[in-house]
Amino acid sequence: MGESVTAQLTRPLNSLIKISLTRLIKSNNPHGAAPTSSNITYHDLRVPVRVGQKNVGDHVKTLFDGEIPTDNDNESFVKSLEKAQLHGMGVRFVIIGSENSVGKWLNGGRQGNGQNYQCFARHFICNPVGPGQGTFFEQTLLLGEVRYDDITMQIDEMARSEGIDQSQIKYGDNIVYDRMVEEASVRCQRRLANIIQCIAKCGLYPICISGGNEDILGMGYGVHLGRTMATGTKANISIGNLDCHGDFKSIEDRGAHSGNGYSFLKYIGCLEKYAVLGLSPYENRQAMMERLISFNCWYRFLDDISLTGASSRPSLHTSVIDMLKYLDTEDSSEVLGLTVDLDVTEDLPTVSCPATIGFTRSQVHELVQEFTRYSKPYFLLIAEGMPDVSTPLTEGNNRVLGKYQAALVSCFLRNSIIVPHI
Is 301 helix (H, G, I), strand (E, B) or coil? Predict the structure, then answer.
């Protein structure tokens, strides 16, 4: 299975781009130009108007502020991204949404509902911006959300034809269904990798709001390809992961899913170092821990960290520094990334696999701040958010989830501007 999935993933990527572009409706630009190609889809987000107050949405850019792609292929998108970067817009960071349910289903997690990027974006653009804080938002492009509907539709059609109840079926119940979902998962990751490749090729910093941590496979592989194309030198990646799960299961386990994305990156030869901070002592099997050890990965359990500074155990700050010392490299071609699995946060119900214990939201924010401030990572992936479909995206637990993800992205952007030495 591992070789088969890897062979599928590493075939030359299809140049077809499927993404729903974000268009912001602002008071000074109520509509914006529409795409000229029927292959380009988009969705609108309205920036609130408040007298005397500037919001993030008044500062961030979209492709509608520059040049809209003329078609849904790599060449058109790279051209639009390059113009956003070089010609007046000054874009440095690109935010993209990605959510499909197949990777989490394969790993036994709760399936997503396709609304996590919208939940994030609605709160992100509404956040107020204080004096002098608009610089990093003005360098940010809110790109849009990857579309997987054509891939998942094939699974739905197969389930209907076979009389399969997708709300009840589990891996192992139907081998034909299992194989179809495994193949779909690889296709989703190839699609994400293709878009990330375009972003990284332009030297832009990708930020992905993801439904599942399987997207580290598409993110990591896309960054690897894009930076290799841009520099002419093989660009390996190293990743620091804030997570209560090690997510380093065998590649022989159920295809590519949210629990083995880092293993696949290691297997295909583009992951140099992997470190995970915040592991739960109750949710990681011995076999996976042995894999982390055998591949010389760095990890630290939650109960080996002093969360209050009142014991002799390493503090949050020390833990981040220890992680970065392990990830540090003198190889200029190596790319560093940060991933945040929201499952690492305690008392956050709107995630796919809530942890028994975890960090508080403030502690995760501090970890992102410390990691970014001291290392200047090239990319950020925030994964596993799952809004409650029974509640509006702006209310209740969804409001908490949206504002929390918006705060983590803002923290990453702000601390990427100035990076002190360790």
Answer: strand
